[in-house]
Write a structure and sequence with these properties.
This protein is α/β, with parallel strands linked by helices. It is built from 20 helices and 22 strands. The chain is globular. Bound molecules: NADPH dihydro-nicotinamide-adenine-dinucleotide phosphate.
Amino acid sequence: MSEIAREPDFDPNALRERYRIEREKRLRPDGNDQYVEMTGEFARFLDDPYIDERIERGPITDAVDVVLIGGGFGGLTTAARFREAGIDELLLIEKGGDFGGTWYWNRYPGAQCDVESYCYLPLLEELGYVPKEKYAYAREILDHAAAIGRHYGLYEQTLFQTEVTDLRWDEAISRWTVHTDRGDAVRARFVCMANGPLHRPKLPGIPGLRDFKGHSFHTSRWDYGYTGGGPDGNLDRLGDKRVAIIGTGATAIQCVPFLGEAAKELYVFQRTPSSVDVRGNSPTDPEWTRGLQQGWQKHRMENFNALVSGVPQEEDLVDDGWTDLVAKFVHRFRNADPGANMSLPQMIEMVNFEKMEELRGRVDELVDDPETAEKLKPYYQMFCKRPTFNDEYLPTFNRPNVHLVDTDGKGVERVTEKGLVVAGITYEVDCIIYSTGFEVGTAYTRRAGYDAAGRGGRLLSEHWNDGTRSLHGMSSHGFPNLFVSQISQAAFTANFPHLLEECAVHQAHIIGHALQNGFTEAEVTRDAEEAWVKTILGFEGGPLAGLGGPDCTPGYYNNEGQEHPHAAQSAPWGGGSIGFFKLLEDWREEGSFEGLEFRRS
Ligand code: NDP
């Protein structure tokens, strides 16, 4: 009997109904507004706990060819590609005390890349480096970021512990003036913004948030002074502490095992369970490393990207939880019974049900207490939330000191002086750790922490008020010489550094051309911008559409379950990341820089 004719051992209608109920339970009228910005009295949550001492320096007023904002993988990859294109006069501005971006801030215990490190870590071949494990941990990733900085001589050209506050286009000299919180006013011919998509941590708007008298911090500012230990664990100061962690997303999945091991009591406050698939980490095989041929990383990134984009490949080089779903789909598709009369969307839905059933079964296998196991099972289609991969998270709930506090989709009810309240019960704790994620649906300029005033003083926030307006997601009319690396109007991929790499190559091409030919301005034309906006709108939703349907619980992938007024216009290019990267390559090869105007002042 073919696969497709086999009766599933679950009831699809019952699952559809269950998914719908779980979604309804969690929908709230305040959507994204349920979260609290880390400003005013909550600004202390943003303090950098990782710097030994503040760098003291006077303001800078240099003139450079390019200012790169952000020293994470975006800024580093861009700087590397600029160097290769002969663009040397660079200045990087980075808020943190070192390179790393996401990985500078997120060094909580257990932090690990959840996309295979051979695809995820940028510039491996350039640095002649192969990660030690299939999924690298934070320390190694942070070291790699520093190694990129050293390799390309970027330390000497970076202002650390410095935040951009404002960008202004100066018509008279065709340059941007970049202002910072250190009083700098750097004049830059070009500015590239690589602020990172998950840059601003957020707090849950739980009543009483400010009442708690114990210790508290956000996972992206881990307080090792309080917990002891480091990113590898050994949190030796928690032995006499009752700890609460709020949130069970990709971050919590990784740090909960370490908290469970160390804390006297650990309370995990859950609103929606994550899907937790097998991690199966393994050390890198030296034999495999020796056999790598030139160009291996690009080839591997493209193979992975194709598979997670649903494009079947002869070979699955990565072969992990990400590609497994596609492999299952391909298997089913190849074995489909033509008489079964199942449409493609129906087939995709069935594969998704099967995969989620497998993951719910995994919870039963790994968690001893059936009641706890039941609460840890996710009921939604897999890609409504970031899928997670971990082998220690679920068994942690078998520890006698670890308690799951399931809020039945409602979230924590209240914070008091002494702890947290759920269903009328107060859980007294010494410390609350907020694993509540980052701003996503808010305005780009708010997340960046600064605005850009372009031609005639027009603000980027105004220009993008009704959604992104750009060519290729990277630059806008009225904002000459300004580039951004982002998902909106560009592409979505599970391996974000892949997008950053493509943006870096593209920006190096344009800026390199301008500098080599003495152009002082490169600006997207009004028509090209308008045409790109129309192209984006023409896709009816783009690749993330459909995540707001009845089978999806709310979260940041779907604007907390609410229609976003700018969703269509700010969506990624709807033809998928493979198509988008090809489109950029063709555009470069065509050679006319279509849609850009170069000028000499
Ligand atoms: P998320 O936004 O994914 O998770 C936030 C968590 O907080 C959710 O479980 C959410 O519940 C919960 N929450 C929010 N408000 C409340 C409340 N009032 N009461 C109880 N719970 C609440 O943030 P993360 O930091 O976990 O992950 C963010 C992203 O970072 C990931 O999606 C991933 O892209 C990335 N990441 C990547 C890693 C990697 O290895 N590459 C590792 C870790 C993170 P609910 O789901 O109901 O909203």
